[in-house]
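Hello again, I could really use a second opinion on something today. My current little project is about how a certain protein chain folds up. You're getting the sequence in one-letter code plus the fold written as C-alpha cells. Here's the protein in full, and shout if anything looks odd to you:
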Amino acid sequence: MEKVLWVTGGGSGMGAASARYAAASGWRVALSGRRTEALTEVAESITADGGEVLTLPLDVTDPEQVRAGHDAVVDRFGRLDGLVLSAGLNTPQRDWADQSMEEFARVVDVNLTAVARVLDVALPQLRRTAGVVVVISSIAAWRTNPQAGVAYSASKAALAPLVASLNFEEAEHGVRACHLCPGYVATDFMKLRADVPDAAAQAEMLTADDVGRAVGFVLDAPPHVRIDELVISPVSQR
C-alpha cells in the first residue's frame, strides 16, 4: 500500500519542495497551509507528474482546523505514515530592542506549539504505521545566530528536546522523528529579515530543493533507521 504524507507549510519553500520530492518517490501527499492558491499551484505540479495529492487549507495555530485536517487525510487515504512539519514564522522586528510580546507569542505559536499540536493529533495514526516525522527547524536551533531573532531562535531551539522526547517515548511503536536544521535557504522567508539579502548573497544559499532532497532522505530511510538530527548548510555559511 502506498504511504501517506502530511506536509504543513506545503504551499511554498521547503514544504512545497519536500512534498514534490516525496510524491516523486511514491508517497501520496496531503498539503496544508493558509494560502489556498499556493497550495493549488503545488498540487497541480504534483498531479501533472502523476502524483496523488489532497489540499487542506488551514491554520496550524487553530486546534479545530488541525483536527479537521487530520481527519480529512485519514478519510481520504485511510492512513497516515509520515509528517513533514514545515510551517514557520518570523518577523522583521525580532531583536530585544524592537520586538513586541504579541509578535513573540505568534512566532512561538507557529514554530513550536503548532508542531506539538499537529504531532499530538497525528500520533495515534503514526503509531499504527510506525510512521516517520521530519520537523523542519533551523540552524539557529543548533548554533546561536543573532540575526535569527529572539523568538525564532528560542522556538526553534525548543524543537530539539521535543523531537528527542518523541523518539524516546515512541520508539516502541516504531515512530521515528528527525530534527532537520537547514542553514540559510533562499526562499521568500528571507524577505522577513530586516536586512533582506541581495541576489548575490541568496545565490550562495541552500535552495528549497536542497532541503526537499534531505527530507526525502529521511522519509525513505529503512524502518530500522532513525535520523535523530540532520544539519545542512551552504558552504558559504560560517
Notes: Strands lie at 4-8, 28-33, 53-57, 82-85, 132-136, 176-182, 229-232. DSSP finds eight helices and seven strands in the chain. The radius of gyration is 17 Å. The first helix runs from residue 13 to 24.
